[in-house]
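User: Is it possible to get a 3D structure for a protein together with its bound compound? The compound here is 2-acetamido-2-deoxy-beta-D-glucopyranose. I've pasted both below.
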Amino acid sequence: MRFSIVQPVTIAAVALIHTANPVLAACGFDKVGLLTDPGFTITVNSNYKVLEDTAAKVKYGLYCDDTQPSDVAGIDRWFKVPVESVGLRISMASGFLEALGHSDKLIAAESPRNLTNICLDASKIQTLDPASTTSNSSSVDVIFSADEGSDSNISVRLPSNDALTPLQKAEWIKFVAAFFNDEKSADSLFSSIADAYNCHWGNLQHLKDAPHAYWVQYTDGATPSYSIIDTAYQKDLLAGAGATNNTRAALDDSSDQAAFQDAIKDADFVFDQSELHSYGQRATEWYSNFGYKNPKNSGVTFLTSRNIWRTDGFTNKAGVSNFAEFGYVRPDLVLQDIISVLEPKYDTDYSRRWLLWLGGTNESTTVISPDNYDCAKPWFSTVDKCSARTDFTGDSDSDTPDSEADDTDSDSGSGSGRAGKIAGGVIGAAVFVALVIVALHYYNRHRRNVRIQALAQAEYGTDGIDLRDTRRFS
Ligand SMILES: *[C@@H]1O[C@H](CO)[C@@H](O)[C@H](O)[C@H]1NC(C)=O
Ligand SMILES: *[C@@H]1O[C@H](CO)[C@@H](O)[C@H](O)[C@H]1NC(C)=O
Ligand SMILES: *[C@@H]1O[C@H](CO)[C@@H](O)[C@H](O)[C@H]1NC(C)=O
Ligand SMILES: *[C@@H]1O[C@H](CO)[C@@H](O)[C@H](O)[C@H]1NC(C)=O
Ligand SMILES: *[C@@H]1O[C@H](CO)[C@@H](O)[C@H](O)[C@H]1NC(C)=O
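Assistant: Yes, that's possible. Here is the predicted structure of the complex:
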């Protein structure tokens, strides 16, 4: 009885494969929209798509057939997609690959020891010539770089400065995903990241007494310089955490130490992005760089409370911070890190990822290892739900812990979790005609497999790692 059902289906499948062949010539690219104005556009056509980097004014053509379209004008570089192998000269690319489940395609880096993702197979990562304009790694399909011309016809630029807001920068995951035809997964992940970011941002706009905070940087040199960082990336994070942001005018003279000290003397918190070298003595180094001789008795709030923070709390064995590699991919977590410093009562269950308290007696960074990072439970795929609230004022008497905002124990609200469940349902329904579906839609199967991967990741739940225990410093 069973045979009589299966056989016609098999025959139908074979018949369909024959008639469907010409249809396979179309790429079947997914179309996704953009939520921010990230500095690139994606235009999808039947057998190619165009990624335009509007800041660098470069157009990349991505095609799926064996032959590159010949009748399209204005394309600077063509790539056959999906690409198989990737090189990088910008750490952020590694974070995007990890989030998309493509870390296995990373085979070359300008500085492999600067990579912090312990789940990469270090033995297969070649070193790229730092100065090359034609890559010396012949087997790489594309090299992501801060400079669009670094590797001639396989070079692709990602934004490297902080002129974009955290969400604009993170939305470049869709740009990277286009090289793997994974825009849908990227879209789903980014949407949940943006929802969480905007939700926390909104929740922190009701403070009774907004803290004052600045990002600062000391730069060594013949004439040392002192800067208040006022780029969009840092400003948006401080504003989103409810702090009054960097609205100070830039110093007329960046070498004027006294003017700098005067400009930030109202700070409750300072976030530092200077290079520091004296491990174990970095707080002392910091005071000395900025010219604070007696911080304890200075009468300046951030100095007396020693509230100086950095983003390098989580490093690889070589001491390289993980922030540039993973932080840009998850602005919702970076924002929650900053909120956890400025307003610790907002979510007492949150464990900080990157921020390190430089003013503490123990400035040890957390070195990434299998003890604190489980490669089977990537921390990119699950985004904790944030519930909108207007009652958090930062005032300890009136704030009550919000059970929904604190809810971190379920993946029910996770964007990728939800997408994964939908994909799972589709897969279940499709099982009885699997033969037909697999034969007809090879590339769709590939795409679904990516989602199955996402589902498997989401099932592990939230917070696979617990990088920084906030209570350690209290
Ligand atoms: C590697 O990391 C070091 C220390 O953070 C930095 O000085 C250097 O520029 C990095 N190299 C590359 C190629 O990114
Ligand atoms: C590329 O060049 C760099 C520096 O010149 C060298 O260290 C590396 O081994 C080269 N890589 C390959 C794959 O030839
Ligand atoms: C880049 O140029 C080389 C040498 O001309 C060529 O072999 C290769 O196919 C080109 N790659 C792409 C992606 O256009
Ligand atoms: C500073 O933050 C406020 C919200 O607290 C925002 O309205 C304003 O646009 C921000 N200013 C700048 C220059 O970012
Ligand atoms: C600092 O913290 C690290 C990590 O918790 C710990 O291993 C180390 O022993 C601490 N060092 C001191 C001096 O307390």
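The pocket of 2-acetamido-2-deoxy-beta-D-glucopyranose (ligand 4) is lined by residues 235, 239, 245, 247 (CB under 6 Å). The longest strand covers residues 213-219.
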